[in-house]
Structures are given as C-alpha cells and as structure tokens.
C-alpha cells in the first residue's frame, strides 16, 4: 500500500477515492445498519455515488470553490457528500448536528452557504426556521425522507433526486468529473471546521488536502494501520477527530467505516462491529467504566470477588505486560487466568475484543481511568492536537506510555515550548487560515510559522510532552503558588460520582469548587441505600450525597499535598450545583468543556458565598429545555468546608 | 395535513351492552370515517373501553349492529375483527413480558403467516422465506417507532413509556386499516405524551390508518382528533368536532359535575 499512497498523484481526497475504486473496488468502504441489517457500500459503490452527487451538484448550479454545509449524524451519504464537494473544488463544512438553529445561523451566513445537505426532518426544520435570514440559500438536500412528504418548498430535495439527476448528467457528460478532479490541487482547502469557540464567535478553520493527508499518513504509518481496519464512526462529523479518523485516514489507507444505526444503539453496534481501531473522547471511556462498575455492584458476590481480585492483578501487572516490560512469572500466570475469566469477557461486553489501537483526546483523561483500560489489555493511547493542527501534534508510541503525558511529537511535527510555557507547533498539518479572519490568523501563527496552541506544557526528560492546562487558565493563588484549574477538575471528574467540576482560585487565597454529581452513579448509590429523591436538584441537596462527595474531594486533597507545587491547590470549600451544566445554557461548549468565565459570571453569588464564609446560598437560574422552552430552577445550596492537609516540612498556618 | 377524510368505514348502530343488570352501553350510534382520528372520551365508567371491546368483538352487544365497510356484523368476534384489519392496543399493556421486542412484534404478524407448524418448526423452505419477509416488516415498524436500541431487550425490563410504544408497535405490525388505541398516553410524562402524539399523527398521516382512540388528557384529544364522541353512564351525550364538543353544555357538566 505505501507505494501507492505516497505516489505524488494521490494528493487530494477525490484522487484517493478514485484510486481505491480501482485498486480495491469490491472491498467494503462503508457500512450502515438499516432495518436491523448492516448494509455495505464497496469502494466502487462509494465512487459511483460520489460521482452522481457531484454531477448532480453541477446540474444544480454549483460553483467551484463554494462552501457546502453538512449537518447530521454520521451517515455514509454525509461522508460521500464531503468527497463529492471536494471533487468540484468546493469546501465541505460539517456542522454539529445538535446545535440549535441560532448557533447554525452564524456559520451559514459567515460561510455564505448556498447548498446544504442535512440528515432528516429535524435538521430541515431548523434550517426553515432560519430561512428568512439566509437569502443566499439555494438548495437544501435531505437524506432521510421520513416525515418529509408535506414539505413542498421547491428548494428542498431528497438526496436521491440529486443522485438521479447526477447519473443522467454523468451519462451526458462522462468526462466532466474527471476533469474537475484533475483541476484540484493539494494545497486547496479540503474542509472547513468551525472551532467550538470556548471564547468569542466560532472561527472557520481552513485545512488543506495536503494538511489532512499528511496528518492521516503520519498517524497511519505510526500505528501501522492497514486497509483491513474497521472503525465505528459515531462522533460528530464536525469534530476534527472524526474527520481525521473516519474521513482522512479511511480515504488514505482504504479501511472500512461503520455508521451506527442511531445515537442510542452505539453500544450495541460497537459490539456487533468489533472495531480494530477505536477513537473516543475521555467521557465515553468514563461512561463505559461507570456502567461496568454499576453493573458489577449489582452482580453476585462470587462474580464481584472474582472481578475485584483479577482487577487487582491487572492493576499490578496488566499495563506492564501490554508494554512488554518484565513481570514476575506468578503474575503472568494470574493475569492469563484473569484474561480468561474477566478481561476477555469484559472487553467483549465493551465491544473492544478486536481493538488493536484505541485513542483518546479532546480533554485530559484521568490517570486511573487510563490505567484501567490499559491494564485489561486494551492498547489505549492519548494523542494531542487541535482543530488547527488536524488533531495531529503528539502521539504516544506503543510500549512507551506515560500516564501523565500525551506522548512524543508525531512524525513531521515540530513542537517547542515558549517562554511563558505555551506550546508552539509547526508542520505540514497546520491550518491554512481562519476563514475571512486574517486578524485571527495573524494572531494564531507567529512570525516563524509556529501555531500557538494556547496550552501550557512541559517536556519531561524522555521528550514526552505533558499538558498542564490552558495557558491563559493557569493562574496564581494570592500566596504565589501555581493554580491549574483543569488539572484539579480532571482529578475530581475521575470519581464516578462527580460528572462535572469547576474550581476557582486564581488571585484568591484558597481553592473552592462547584460540583455536578453524576445522576446515574449517585442515583444508583442512593437507591441501594433506600434514599428517596425526586430529581437532580433534590438528590444533589441530600446531606448523604454531600458526605459522599466530601469524602471524594478530601481524598484528592490528600493526593494534592504530595504534588509539590500543587499542594496549595487543595480544595477548601465546595457546593453541589442545583442544575447540571449544559451546552444549551451556554455553560459548556458543544464538546462539553466548561466555559469557565461564563460560569463564574452566571453564578457570581455562589462564588461570593463560597469565599464569604457563608453556610448556604439561595439561587435561581433560568434553564432552556431541549424543545426550546424556558424554565427556572431554584434552590438553597449548602456549602461545606473540607479537611485540608498540612504540607510536610512547612509550618501550619 | 393533506390526507383526505373519506367515506364512513365503520358504523355502529344502536348498540346496547349489559352485564346482567348493569347497562354498560345504551343505544349508542356513531360512525368512523376512513383516515380520520376519532376520539371517544368520557368520565370513569362511562363505557369507553366497553365500546372499544364491542368494536373488536371481545364483547357481544345484546342489541345493535356493526357495519364495517358495508358489511353487517351483528356478532363480531376478535378473530373476524383482526382479519378485517382492526388492531388494538390495551390500557394495561398486554405484551409478553418475557419475550423481546422483536418477538412481541412478530406476534402481530401471526395472522399473516401462511406456512404450517411443521415447516416453521424446521424453519424450512417457504417458512424461512416468509419469516424473513415478516421480520423485514417488523423492522420497518421498529424504525418507524424509533426503538432500534431496545430490539433485543425483554419487554418486562423496559420502562412503562417504552412498553406502551412496543404495544403500539405490535398493533402496527398487523398493518391495520383501523387502529383502536385504549388510553395510549395514560400514565406518561409530558415528553412521552408528546412523542406518542407524534407517532399517532404519523401513523395516520403516512399509512392513512383510521384511528379510534380513548384518552383522558383533554388537551391531547382536542389537539389531535378530527371528531369526538362523548359518553357518560353508557349514553352518548355529545358528538362532533372538538370545538363543538368543548362548547356542549352537557359535556361540560359531565366533566365538571355542575348542574345545568
């Protein structure tokens, strides 16, 4: 394979597709479950449909270089549309499918979108809501005809119409598409991904074919990916990670992508497909582990004993065995037994029996969580990157996994640390520019062509990069000690009972925290104790639950005290929020990162109460429901003090 | 809505039903037109479920007759009703709790299965082809009701709202021309009710299925039905479109208990 993929002619995604159709035309390229049965598209099928789509777009008046928005769950035709647009020198622009209409508006206007391809009626309705503000909109295609019978607007089309039109067009102009593909250049923009925007308006990141193909090739060679891999494509198509794994790498190496039936069936589909290459953000791994732990607590005593015994063995030696480091013979034997009784069945339940390489990224992963998966024999690794770098900066090499680092700079990437601790990167995978934002482009790329990531990090002795926090988030306590909020929050979030945490401490004398409990895990815990509750707010206010969370945080305090510079970051006071932080209320980004500044402002009274020494505080908050209605949640929140530990060798204050 | 309400498909004439001395239904007549959503409402014990049971032949009325597509039935029975394309759901969910969702829906296809027991036991030849075709139909229903994620879950383990949906699924698996729904939204929360309303409207709209439903939630009834029959103590006290029924003083007094 490498000799064909690295040949100079295959430097755009459409050319890669044409090549796959020629080389492995009858091999599966995409699968999707329809009416309970996995349907397969071979590379030839994909090439034919992409051709029909592209020709259909030409027939509809598509102009070279324009942007086409794509909104929906992961569906084969959505991926095909990306390539179809690229064939014509256009730029696909995937959007988050759970964004509300107003969030979509900005992007659709900014990118001057005339053609939109959406999944179903739900998305069509969102677009129609915005119709008046989108005068430039020409054609809206949908993939799923369900419920669409009564939409008679002439600009709304079933994608099958487009395909039909394209097939006719292709018969009449058989050479047109090949000529269009030939006009493409590797330095053309191949995709535009809007950053979720932790701060300010979203920015369109323009990435070229060259950038994504370089990133995909680097990663594929690094992990020796072949055309035989199977992956499950279930993460939002608008996310750079999905674009790298399900689009760029699939088109580069020719492996198979599998689209789940619906968001609710992902676990089942995962088990049925048994991917060999798997990618998930930490919260997915976290949810899986929480589910396993909850189910184990309900298992019979014998099973529980067995599970805990062998997990002990795995903790001792599992990760070492995976890394090929020396382990005593006795432990090796025990681990083999454990594999038979616990680890293999567990991997099977998780759908990870065939996983050869699994990656996580997007946020830092708790070390214990990470260790858990590695110890049962899943080669879970971390990578580091952002939308602007095609999610390709650092990768953890097999056998050299450090739990607290994101690995070494990936092949072809230069990484350096600026004086203020910020990580700077350079390489072929960098963004071309921010769409229509030369100011932002100039801000992000320095004079030497380095991209400024905004993350603070350090290299350890072996050349592994360790991310501490966002460069701008790293602050100082009033006594001058370093305060890295994300680091502490991630520690907190590793407890199965804590879903989300926000800690405060910059320019303050001590660290305090907001906690969101995990309603699933804490609810189960409460049930087993016969504790009645009516909902999130009620459960979070129970003194028993406060006790539970208090224990967890105090355990973290005892850990922090041993971590040198971070000893002063022990949490002194906390409260459990009366509502879950939610992207619909703008408290989290769509990728579920806390918008710290916004939260601090919105809940200012609570912060004042934490630092003002109060025991409780009343708060009322407006919330948005999924259907767009508004409501209010009010509660009297209890604030608790926590035990902190004195640092050895320092006089207690 | 573009669906066309057609001719009278089901006509009940002077139906009376008594259990010993208790008169459950007295001299009730009303009709149902093709493709419409027809609601039966009334206070507790008004005879709504009895009415439904008369339509699909569980109860035999002492007097009156049922005219289905011009055919007179003085004695309807459940088998005939099912053969004639009438299917129903139940107030207190009558699913097979130990069987999974697919198997429960497959029971809805029972009447349409042609192969004999022996062929089915060996899953041989025509039986096999037939089952695959029926399974495909069931999968369409699963897709329609968006219950893919619970396909293989035993029904007993599902939450109540989903069980109701599976119950509807089994009735749909029969591909009925008339669907009788006995309190499809009882005991549901707001979101589940909204979902159920959506499904009922979609069934009516996409398959043109005529729907007769009993429901307590007045907001729902007034929202989705084309015409409403009101029963009280086994007698018909109102019949007409939702606005007319809402304005009917007898209906108001039956519901609010005020004297008129």
Domain tally of chain B: 2
SSE pattern of chain B, N- to C-terminal: EEEHEEHEHHHHEHEHEEHH
Helix residue percentage of chain B: 25-40%
Average pLDDT level of chain A: 89
Rg calc of chain A: 26 Å
Please explain how this structure is put together.
The complex is a heterodimer of chains A (653) and B (260). Chain A is of the alpha/beta class and 653 residues long. Among the domains of chain A are: 2-211, ANL, N-terminal domain (Rossmann fold, 3-Layer(aba) Sandwich), CATH 3.40.50; 475-641, GMP Synthetase, Chain A, domain 3. Chain A contains 22 helices and 28 strands. Residues 1-8 of chain A have low confidence and may be disordered. With 260 residues, chain B is of the alpha/beta class. Chain B has 2 domains: 1-85 and 177-260, Rossmann fold, CATH 3.40.50.300; 97-175, no CATH class. Helix content of chain B is 38%, strand content 24%. Chain B contains 10 helices and 10 strands. Chain B has helices at residues 48-55, 78-83, 101-107, 117-122, 126-145, 160-173, 190-207, 218-224, 242-247, 249-256; strands spanning 8-19, 22-33, 37-41, 63-68, 71-73, 86-88, 178-182, 210-214, 227-232, 235-240. In chain B, helix 5 (126-145) packs across helix 6. Chain B is globular and about 60 Å long. The model of chain B has no long low-confidence stretch (mean pLDDT 88). At the A-B interface, loops of A face helix 5 and helix 7 of B.
Task: Provide keyphrases for this structure.
heterodimer, A: 653 residues, alpha/beta, Rossmann fold, GMP Synthetase, Chain A, domain 3, 22 helices, globular, disordered N terminus, B: 260 residues, six-stranded mixed sheet, four-stranded antiparallel sheet
